[in-house]
Each structure stands twice: as structure tokens, then as C-alpha cells.
Design goal:
Layout (H helix, E strand, L loop, with lengths): L3 E3 L5 H11 L7 H11 L6 E7 L2 E9 L9 E8 L8 H13 L6 E7 L3 H9 L3 E12 L11 H7 L2 E5 H7 L3 H12 L14 H7 L11 E6 L2 E10 L5 E9 L8 H15 L4 E7 L3 H10 L2 E2 L3 E7 L7
Parallel strand pairs: 4-5, 10-11
Antiparallel strand pairs: 1-2, 2-3, 3-4, 5-13, 6-11, 6-12, 6-13, 7-8, 8-9, 9-10
This protein binds coenzyme A.
């Protein structure tokens, strides 16, 4: 019997449970995943299937698109199979299902990621014509062991230059334009982030629905650097459900303000927030080409785990997959 069927609303707990079992350092929260899926509805093309054996979900396969680099014929694939069910053709069946569903869109490229220690998944993809394009370091900071001493006085030195750091929660209290200012700041800085595909604009409406909302969003964990009334830098984290963990989303400084220690000071502030609020770990992932960001994180004591490899398969327009 074919174990593959379409994903159903009731599959969320089992699929998130499987993902978290396989990716403990990139765990997802149930409610936030539901929120993310709902907020992508109508904005990206998306399809998901599960493999079910004896009533148990043992694998997931899906296609979606990158909201920040949208192209109607470019897709992102994700697939995973419970270790005890690997080697039985389930991954292949899920993959074939995903590709079949994509045919109608005439895809020109497929991207996916795999951890460097998943040799079976890597081989699976290489055999199907995927080639590595970049690596990201997935890193974790044990908050209690963070190296904050070298940065004592950094925020005060910036203050003496007219720069201050405030949380988004504080700014929201007095500035009705805070969210649109954050959107403008993010939209400018994200253009300089190393990435796989050219960035496409993210509207304010999409930003509100997909970033500054949802159960894991907490404006107290978003920090902004200001020079007088000008917003010049940001470092923002999300909660991960009820876990004692924070997930770094985005850090950046506007070009004219770079090299002054602003990003470093913002990240120090995020670690202090974690300490003061009882979080045990902060996780992040960084493009291996982003020397500045990696240096900032290394200094704070982030430890790198298995890298995440990005792979690409380019398809000749109209080619049979
Ligand atoms: C990465 C980025 C946030 C750094 O911001 P910044 O405010 O200029 O960083 P800082 O001034 O705090 O730099 C702190 C340290 O980073 C390191 N650093 C900065 N630029 C560097 C570079 N080009 N190469 C290597 N290390 C660098 C240095 O160690 C520096 O400390 P030092 O000046 O005392 O030696 C900024 O370049 C940026 O916004 N880039 C685009 C967005 C992005 O890629 N964000 C990360 C993805 S979430």
C-alpha cells in the first residue's frame, strides 16, 4: 500500500514531533508552525505530504517558496524520514510525490538543505543532481557561559556617541510608527545579507503577518539601535514555544553606521535579555561567508555544530524532472 498521503491539519503534532526529534538544535514550536503556514497562505506556492505506516507518521515531504526571494518557478524542498524507517524507499516516494505535484509549475530550480552529518540525505540529493551552493553554521550559545566581560562599557561608549539601544516593546509604547520603521530598517539591511537568490521586496503587510506576529514573536526580544530618532541597527530573536531557548532571527546595521561596534552591542543586549529572563540557550545560523557576523558570535561564545549545506538543482526550462 502506498504510504504517501496529503498532509492534514491533524498531522501537525506528529510532523513537528518528528522534525524536532531529527533536529533538536533547530526545533520548531507547534503553534508557531501553524501560524507560519497560515501566514504564507496565498503568498507562496506550498504543498506537503506525509508517509504513514500503521497509523504513524514516519516521513514528511514538501515544497514551498522563499518569501524573501520569490520567483514563480523556483522552489524549496524539505523532506525527512524517521531513522528507523529509512532505507525502505519512503524518502524516494515522498520526493517523487513532491516533484510530480510541481510539474504543473514548470520549475526552473529546486533548492534544499541538509546537515553535513546526514550522509544518506546528502547522497540521495547528489544522486538526483543537486550540487552544493553554500554552507551555514548552526551555532548555539550556552547563555550562562557567554563571554560578556570583554564588552563591559561598550554600550556606554556608544551612548557617549549619541547611540542608544532600546527594545521594540519600549519603542512601541511611544511610537505608533515603530513597526513601519522596523520594516524599513530590515528592508534596507537585508539587501546586504549573503544569500542564495536575489532578494525580492517584502511588503509592510507581509512583514506584519509573517514576522511581527505569531506566538513566538515577543517585542521584548527585539532590540533596536538608534541615533537620536534614526533607527540604525537591529538584533531580534524569537521564542521557541515554551522552551528555554531563543532563536536569533536577524541582526544588522545600516551601512553608514557599520564598524562602530553597534551589532556587537546589540548582540550583547540580546544575551543579557536571555540571562535576565531565564533562557538557557540562544541559537543562530550564519552563512559561512558572513565573516563579520561570525566574528561577533564567536566572541560571545557561540559554538558551531554541524553545518547546514544548501543544495541547488537547476532545471532546463520545460525539462522533464
Ligand atoms: C554583519 C553586520 C551586522 C556587522 O555590523 P557592525 O555594526 O558593522 O558590526 P560591529 O561594528 O559591531 O563589528 C563587531 C566586530 O565584527 C567583526 N567584523 C566587522 N566587520 C568585519 C569584517 N568585514 N570581517 C571580519 N570581521 C568583521 C570585528 O571583529 C568587529 O570588531 P572590531 O571592529 O572590534 O574588530 C553588518 O555588516 C550587516 O548589517 N550586514 C548585513 C546584514 C547581515 O548579514 N546580517 C547577518 C545575518 S542575520
Amino acid at each position: 500500500m502506498n504510504p504517501i498521503r496529503s498532509f492534514a491539519e491533524t498531522d501537525y503534532p506528529a510532523t513537528i514531533g518528528l522534525w524536532n526529534r531529527l533536529n533538536p538544535d533547530r526545533s520548531r514550536s507547534l503553534e508557531d508552525t501553524r501560524h507560519t503556514d497560515a501566514s504564507l497562505e496565498g503568498k507562496v506556492r506550498k504543498g506537503r505530504w506525509v508517509a504513514e505506516v500503521d497509523g504513524e507518521i514516519v516521513g514528511v515531504g514538501e515544497y514551498s517558496q522563499n518569501l524573501g526571494s520569490l520567483h514563480p518557478q523556483k522552489f524549496i524542498l524539505e523532506g525527512y524520514v524517521a531513522p528507523e524507517f529509512q532505507g525502505q524507499g519512503i524518502g524516494k516516494a515522498l520526493y517523487d510525490q513532491v516533484l510530480e505535484a510541481l510539474q504543473g509549475y514548470n520549475p526552473i530550480s529546486l533548492r534544499t538543505t541538509v546537515r553535513e552529518n546526514s550522509s544518506r540525505a546528502l547522497r540521495f540529493l547528489q544522486e538526483r543532481g543537486y550540487a552544493e551552493t553554500k554552507r551555514d553554521w548552526v551555532s548555539v550559545l550556552q547563555v550562562a557561559e557567554a563571554h560578556l566581560e570583554p564588552f563591559v562599557g561598550l554600550e556606554e561608549r556608544l551612548k557617549a556617541q549619541g547611540l542608544e539601544i532600546r527594545s521594540l516593546a519600549e519603542l512601541l509604547q511611544t511610537d505608533p510608527q515603530a513597526i513601519s520603521k522596523l520594516h524599513a530598517l530590515f528592508s534596507e539591511i537585508r539587501l546586504d545579507t549573503p544569500r542564495s537568490e536575489p532578494p525580492t521586496p517584502i511588503s509592510l503587510e507581509t512583514f506584519v503577518e509573517n514576522v511581527v506576529s505569531g506566538p513566538d514573536y515577543d517585542p521584548k526580544a527585539f532590540f533596536i539601535a538608534l541615533e537620536n530618532i534614526e533607527w540604525v541597527g537591529m538584533s531580534c530573536m524569537f521564542r521557541v514555544g515554551q522552551a528555554k531557548e531563543l532563536d536569533h532571527w536577524f541582526t544588522g546595521t545600516r551601512r553608514p553606521w557599520r564598524g562602530r561596534g553597534i551589532a556587537q552591542a546589540l548582540k550583547v543586549r540580546t544575551v543579557r535579555f536571555a540571562r535576565e529572563n531565564g533562557f538557557a540557550t540562544i541559537r543562530t545560523d550564519n552563512d559561512s561567508r558572513n565573516a563579520a557576523m561570525l566574528a561577533i558570535n564567536d566572541r560571545l561564545g557561540f559554538r558551531r555544530g554541524a553545518a547546514q549545506i544548501s543544495l541547488l538543482k537547476e532545471l532546463v526550462h520545460g525539462a522533464v524532472l
